[in-house]
Amino acid sequence: SLIGKMVYFFGALPNMLMITFVSNEQGRNRDPQKSFYTLFFITVILSFGAFLSLGLLGNYLVPLLFGNKTKVILPYLFIYAAGISLFAVASSIITYHLAKKQYIFPVISLFAACIMSAGIVLFHKDIVEITYVIFYTSICSLTVTGVLHILESYYPLSFRLVRNLLKLEAISSKRSWKSLSILSSRSKDQDDIKNL
């Protein structure tokens, strides 16, 4: 757990600046992609560095830092550190789009967290299964957010189409709920009239 926090912390350091830089660029009516790609590159470098030091070289470094009791988890460090570093990179993309007020990206992140939780509940026989659930969920999360980022950045028409379809679905569901409430209020009014 502590090793995952360390990997995520190193990868998420530039995320603290993401909203500030993106909001500043948008306030000046400039394209915030240059700031994003700079911070994204730093995130990838820091995540990869943490993965190298704690994932690939973890067999040497982790027992040195935390003692001999950590030898039990050493076979799983590579996959676990890779999953957490991929999660940190995906979180950078999500933070960028959150700063741009594109809320589909945090919803996808929430959905990925729910899938990860469900996967851990279903597959928790041993630490290997939990590690692979985290790894595969992180790959899926990064893939989906990366594809949506590319669609939004380079093919905005297709991204708007997907977003509008989701909005239409939400609007139609709101309208159906609203029509149900109107019908129920009308039936109550008719009952009141009959009682008079």
How are helices and strands ordered from N to C?
HHHHHHHH
Whole-number mean pLDDT = 85
Biggest beta-sheet profile:
none
How large a portion of the residues is in β-strands, by DSSP E? Answer: under 5%
Low-confidence blocks of residues: none
DSSP E strands, number: 0
Beginning-to-end CA distance, first to last residue: 67 Å
In percent, how helical is the residue content? over 70%
Class by alpha and beta content: mainly alpha
Radius of gyration: 23 Å
* Overall body shape: globular
Count helical runs: 8
Condensed summary:
With 196 residues, this protein is mainly α. The chain has 8 helices and no strands. The mean pLDDT is 85.
Q: Can you walk through the features of this model?
A:
With 196 residues, the protein is an all-alpha fold. The protein is built from 8 helices and no strands. It has helices at 2-12, 15-27, 33-56, 58-66, 77-99, 104-122, 127-154, 156-195. The longest helix has 40 residues, at 156-195. It is globular.
Give keywords.
196 residues, mainly alpha
Explain the layout of strands and helices:
Layout: H1 2-12, H2 15-27, H3 33-56, H4 58-66, H5 77-99, H6 104-122, H7 127-154, H8 156-195
Helix pairs in contact: 1-3, 1-5, 2-3, 2-5, 3-4, 3-5, 5-7, 6-7, 7-8
